[in-house]
Specification:
The structure is a single chain. Helix content is 21%, strand content 34%.
């Protein structure tokens, strides 16, 4: 079994609804995001997918989240824009981009010391 991982970054703001603390106020993060694809085989030249292709697909997704208020996005109208829900959202969006391989997990850091991993 193989796992291929790439990371990307984006900057955005959010405010946690229902949170009793300073994070209820609008604030921003430079989010680090890692996607991990799982495959049981490689192609004829020994690759799962070209790193460049995976990075391009990830960056296209992250560009839609860059320099926005996450609270304003349709995905976060009913779901709080927490790191947990952000990781789930990225997973659900990116899962389509890595077919026929399985997206194993998405990890999102809101700081150097705090991250969430989502997988199905």
């Amino acid at each position: 079994m193989f796992e291929l991982s790439v990371t990307g970054h984006f900057c955005s703001a959010h405010a946690l609804r229902g949170y009793d603390g300073p994070c209820k106020n609008l604030h921003g993060h430079t989010w680090k995001t890692e996607v991990t694809i799982q495959a049981d085989r490689v192609n004829d030249i020994g690759l799962i997918m070209d790193f460049k292709e995976v990075k391009h697909k990830l960056n296209a997704l992250l560009d839609r989240l860059d320099h926005v208020n996450l609270n304003d996005l349709p995905a976060f109208q009913s779901a709080n824009p927490s790191t947990e829900n952000l990781a789930k959202h990225i997973y659900q969006e990116f899962a389509q981009d890595c077919r026929p391989f399985k997206l194993l997990k998405v990890r999102v850091w809101e700081s150097e010391t705090a991250s969430v991993t989502y997988y199905e």
